[in-house]
Amino acid sequence: MRIQVNGARREVADSATVAEVLDALGMPAAGIAVALDGEVVPRAAHAATPVAEGAVLEVLTAVQGG
Amino acid sequence: MDDPLIIADREYTSRLITGTGGAANLSVLERALVASGTELTTVSLRRVDTEGGTGVLEILRRLGIDPLPNTAGCRTAAEAVLTAKLAREALGTNWIKLEVIADDRTLLPDPLELLDAAQTLVADGFVVLPYTNDDPVLALRLEEAGCAAVMPLGSPIGTGLGIRNQHNIELIVARAGVPVILDAGIGTASDATLAMELGCSAVLLATAVTRAADPEKMATAMRAAVTAGRLARSAGRIPQRFWAQASSPPR
């Protein structure tokens, strides 16, 4: 199925979870935060949260700023 | 600890809070952070693949500096609240430098959205440090909303114009029950000293150091400037006079 991750289209396995998407894209394990369709998904829920077709996923980390 | 800066449940020795924005690279940033003596420094939250990894966090961990995530770039309370929640998730801290900006040319805070976001975040258990206008009334409202400090600007972000309305800063300090942190507009060391002389509890700056020709040297200057201003404030300055007053005894 097709989803959007950080503004780019991605093809992921049907019924993938947030954890599986992060893993497939090689995202760092620590120091990141995930929003799924505008809602924060806590780390503890990554493995149990399914991603639906067309979902918008944002994966953020800390950078220089402010 | 002689004269600690106390914000919420934390104590800091340093009264200089540095931002990490604007440094040419991480090694310049690291040297400037060390020279500044800071114990708390701001970071922003951005998409993982756009800025290249989590290097800045590794530096902060290594140096033992607490990260203070900000909501830079947010235009509405809703955006700022979501960003704060993401920062809490990514960094494991409930501290947030709350910025809600009205427009890109001035980068001035939007007071209505700011207060709205502050109320929501305080209710959600955040320690909120709002970047605010130099407005004494808004500063009180933010304190009433439960903010752990108020952070009025001296002048717009990145301008280096110093403190444009000293009296407003003094009015804010005179009525504040939480630390007042001068945030934004610092151009050089004397601006930081003035902020402390006016009674601010700390100074937050980034550009003045990171974009100086020699960031490490400017960080050293800012550290000394904040210390000097704090000492001068507590020493009690002489009143200003119109006419001269001899300091040598008459013959």
Automatic annotation (TrEMBL), chain A:
SUPFAM superfamilies per the UniProt record, alphabetical: MoaD/ThiS
Species of provenance: Actinokineospora auranticolor
InterPro entries hit by this protein: Beta-grasp_dom_sf, Mopterin_synth/thiamin_S_b, Thi_S, ThiS/MoaD-like
PANTHER family reported for this sequence: SULFUR CARRIER PROTEIN THIS
Record-linked Gene3D superfamilies: 3.10.20.30
Protein name: Sulfur carrier protein
Automatic annotation (TrEMBL), chain B:
Record CDD domains: ThiG
SUPFAM superfamilies, alphabetized: ThiG-like
Alphabetical keyword list: Cytoplasm, Schiff base, Thiamine biosynthesis, Transferase
Thiazole synthase ThiG domain segment(s): 7-249
GO biological process: thiamine diphosphate biosynthetic process
Protein's pathway: Cofactor biosynthesis; thiamine diphosphate biosynthesis
Functional note: Catalyzes the rearrangement of 1-deoxy-D-xylulose 5-phosphate (DXP) to produce the thiazole phosphate moiety of thiamine. Sulfur is provided by the thiocarboxylate moiety of the carrier protein ThiS. In vitro, sulfur can be provided by H(2)S.
Pfam families cross-referenced by the UniProt entry: ThiG
Enzyme Commission numbers on file: 2.8.1.10
GO molecular function: thiazole synthase activity
Family: Belongs to the ThiG family.
Acetylation recorded as keyword: no
This protein's record includes keyword Transmembrane: no
Residue spans crossing the bilayer: none
Catalytic site positions: K97 (schiff-base intermediate with dxp)
Record's subcellular location: Cytoplasm
Subunit structure: Homotetramer. Forms heterodimers with either ThiH or ThiS.
InterPro entries: Aldolase_TIM, Thiazole_synthase_ThiG, ThiG
Chief site of localization: cytoplasm
Protein's name according to its UniProt entry: Thiazole synthase
Taxonomic source organism: Actinokineospora auranticolor
Catalysed reaction, written as an equation: [ThiS sulfur-carrier protein]-C-terminal-Gly-aminoethanethioate + 2-iminoacetate + 1-deoxy-D-xylulose 5-phosphate = [ThiS sulfur-carrier protein]-C-terminal Gly-Gly + 2-[(2R,5Z)-2-carboxy-4-methylthiazol-5(2H)-ylidene]ethyl phosphate + 2 H2O + H(+)
Any one GO cellular component localisation term in the record: cytoplasm
